[in-house]
């Protein structure tokens, strides 16, 4: 077993509870962690034996393009897509951050972290 991580992905997207947030957009961060068996890839040095980072990044990018009201909803969509694209992975954890959320004061980011394991 092992873990693959894509950390510090940044996007400008149009998510938010308020309509105005969905119009003006904001900067978001995503960290993605995949638990999977990495032994075959380690032995073979073949890309098809592991999770392709480019495909992971594409999945996150596609989900970031579709507006969501809540970070929780966005995180669940990312997990759903990752589990769908990679049926052999054991689990996924995602953190989604909104930079400078409109809270009426100073807050660098709001973040949710979600995790799911296969049944």
Automatic annotation (TrEMBL):
InterPro entries: Dihydroneopterin_aldolase, FolB_dom, GTP-CH-I_C/QueF
GO cellular component terms, A-Z: cytoplasm
Lineage: Bacteria, Pseudomonadati, Bacteroidota, Cytophagia, Cytophagales
Dihydroneopterin aldolase/epimerase domain sequence ranges: 4-116
Protein name: 7,8-dihydroneopterin aldolase
GO biological process: folic acid biosynthetic process; tetrahydrofolate biosynthetic process
Catalytic activity: 7,8-dihydroneopterin = 6-hydroxymethyl-7,8-dihydropterin + glycolaldehyde
Organism per entry: Hymenobacter taeanensis
Pathway the protein takes part in: Cofactor biosynthesis; tetrahydrofolate biosynthesis; 2-amino-4-hydroxy-6-hydroxymethyl-7,8-dihydropteridine diphosphate from 7,8-dihydroneopterin triphosphate: step 3/4
EC number(s) stated in the UniProt entry for this protein: 4.1.2.25
Family note: Belongs to the DHNA family.
GO molecular function: dihydroneopterin aldolase activity
Pfam families tied to this protein: FolB (PF02152)
């Amino acid at each position: 077993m092992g873990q693959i991580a894509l950390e510090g992905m940044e996007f400008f997207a149009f998510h938010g509870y308020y309509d105005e947030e969905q119009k003006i957009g904001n900067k978001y961060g995503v960290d993605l962690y995949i638990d999977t068996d990495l032994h075959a890839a380690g032995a073979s040095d073949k890309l098809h034996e592991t999770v392709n980072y480019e495909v992971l990044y594409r999945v996150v990018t596609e989900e970031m393009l579709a507006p969501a009201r809540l970070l929780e909803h966005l995180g669940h969509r990312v997990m759903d897509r990752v589990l769908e694209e990679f049926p052999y992975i054991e689990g996924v954890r995602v953190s989604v951050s909104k930079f400078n959320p409109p809270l009426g004061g100073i807050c660098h980011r709001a973040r949710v972290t979600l995790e799911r394991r296969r049944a």
